[in-house]
Design brief:
CATH architecture of the largest domain: 3-Layer(aba) Sandwich
Number of strands: 11
Protein name: Aminotransferase class I/classII large domain-containing protein
Strand content: 5-15%
Keywords: Pyridoxal phosphate
CATH class of the largest domain: Alpha Beta
Organism: Chenopodium quinoa (Quinoa)
Cofactor: pyridoxal 5'-phosphate
CATH topology of the largest domain: Aspartate Aminotransferase, domain 2
Shape: globular
Oligomer: single chain
Pfam families: Aminotran_1_2 (PF00155)
Strand order of the largest sheet: 4-3-2-5-6-7
Number of helices: 11
Length: 338
């Protein structure tokens, strides 16, 4: 609906600050080593037949060895199931947990696929809140209030989509302790696991694997490092400088209490009292598309009405252009102009 409102007569390039896949931009291209490994595997002729439904044994063995580094015990290839992206992983994880009367706890705001698959298989969903003023940490009290004897699992997404936060080790420990107390499984969704090869120090198996059963959706190999990544986050030096220029970093740290750089997304709260003629987040995004040929995701799509999800995992020049357009749009609609 928002795309349909782009002005076809506007000659400027369309800017998509709503997308969730940075790999379309050259600055986030998958590293050459990873590409070469795929080419070599294809050229070898050893992998042309049907693979096993749970993934090729060498790949499962490599993942098991990687995850075992942070555990007091060793995983084997038989402990690992590889899927065709996170979508299939979510489907398999939820289907394996579904039983009559069962429910699963989901974060709000959160990734909508969990609701879609749960509805399809008859698994009840209950939502716990992520608290903006605490850096989008899990509201642990709401977990205990929502869970009952039929609760089979809770989902966390780290680094966060759409919030862009990264949980501290201490908070992950508290989440794991609550899950253990309630006797529920943790489904840990690593939001960048399905995007590209790179380093990912945020797989929290070291926390959860010691305390509660865990399903990890998405994992990466540290052997493949994408140049320019900072601790696996999609914030390059150029991008960081642009965010500083527009005061984004200061706003994040002040409003969301985040002490470090965010991941590739950020949630922005709309103050409708400061905007003239803007009804809600969808109206904001539609008018932004019409006037500035720019796409931002309305927060209502992820359970946060009157918020916006903005991604800055794109080319620095496009990011700066986008922030200029966004600034111009907000100034044009500011109530002080009326």
């Amino acid at each position: 609906m928002i795309m349909e409102n782009l002005n076809p007569h506007d000659q400027r390039p369309m800017l998509a600050l709503a997308h969730g896949d940075p790999s379309i931009f050259p600055c986030f291209r998958t590293c050459r080593n990873a590409e070469a490994a795929v080419v070599d595997a294809l050229s070898s002729g050893q992998f042309n037949s049907y693979g096993t439904a749970v993934g090729l044994p060498p790949a499962r063995k490599a993942v098991a060895e990687y995850l075992s580094h942070d555990l007091p015990y060793d995983l084997s290839a038989n402990d690992v199931v590889l899927t065709l992206g996170c979508t299939q992983a979510i489907d398999i994880a939820l289907t394996s947990l579904a039983s009559p009367g069962a429910n699963v706890l989901l974060p709000r705001p959160g990734y909508p696929y969990y609701e879609v698959f749960s509805a399809h298989i008859g698994l009840e969903t209950r939502h716990f809140d992520l608290v903006p003023k605490n850096g989008w940490e899990v509201d642990l009290d709401s977990i205990e209030a929502l869970a009952d004897a039929n609760t089979v699992a809770m989902v966390i997404v780290n680094p966060g989509n759409p919030c862009g936060n990264v949980f501290t080790y201490n908070h992950l420990q508290k989440v794991a302790e609550v899950a253990k107390k309630l006797g529920i499984l943790v489904i840990s969704d690593e939001v960048y696991g399905h995007l590209t090869f790179g380093s990912n120090p945020f797989v929290p198996m070291g926390v959860f694997g010691n305390i509660v059963p865990v399903i990890t959706v998405g994992s990466l190999s540290k052997r493949w490092i994408v140049p320019g990544w900072r601790l696996g986050w999609l914030v390059t030096n150029d991008t960081h400088g642009i965010l500083q220029k527009y005061g984004v970093m200061e706003s994040i740290k002040r409003i969301a209490s985040i002490s470090a750089d965010p991941a590739s997304f950020i949630q922005v709260k709309l103050d409708l009292s400061q905007l003239d003629g803007i009804i809600d987040d969808i109206d904001f995004c539609i008018k932004l598309a019409k006037e500035e040929k720019m796409i931002i995701l309305p927060g209502v799509t992820m359970g946060s009405k009157n918020w916006l999800r903005v991604t800055f995992a794109l080319e620095p020049t496009a990011l700066e252009d986008g922030l200029e357009r966004l600034k111009a749009f907000c100034q044009r609609h500011a109530t002080t102009n009326k």
